[in-house]
Every structure is written in structure tokens, then in C-alpha cells.
Specification:
The chain is mainly α and 85 residues long. The chain has a single domain, classed as ACP-like (Non-ribosomal Peptide Synthetase Peptidyl Carrier Protein, Chain A, Orthogonal Bundle). Helix content is 51%, strand content 0%. The protein contains 3 helices and no strands. The radius of gyration is 12 Å and the shape is globular.
Amino acid sequence: MSTQNTAAIIKQLLIETLSLDMTIEQMSDDLLLLGNIPEFDSMAIVSIITAVEEEFAFIVDDDDLSAEVFESIDSLIEFVEDKRG
């Protein structure tokens, strides 16, 4: 799976999980998440991690999580790509 496909999947997960009134095309990769999207709170983070684990078939360890992972869509894509190997 390419990084572009990963980005599209992550954006769709964000739209669905946060119930955002946006399309994938409207979300730039450098869109800031934490502190920028009111719906992106601690419960949303748990939901996003669960969805990412299910979609990409890997487990996220608590030690892997930091605020930097959720800084932007780019950082979340990078995290997923790193976990996938």
C-alpha cells in the first residue's frame, strides 16, 4: 500500500470518527489536529487508534503514543507507515 493510499484511509477514518463535514480532498496532509480541530479530543484519539489498528492490522503500544503522533495528518501518516514497516 502506498503512502498516498495510507493518507486517504487515515483521512477517511478521521472524517468518520470525528463526524467532520469535510471530504478527503479538503484535508491537506499538513492539517493540524491537536488543538486545531475541536472534535479531536482524548476520546477521539482512542477511537482513531482503534480504527487504525483494525484497518492496518497492527497493535499500538502505549509507549508508541505521544502528542507528536497526533500533531498533524502528516505525523499520523508517518506513524502508521513506520508501524507497518
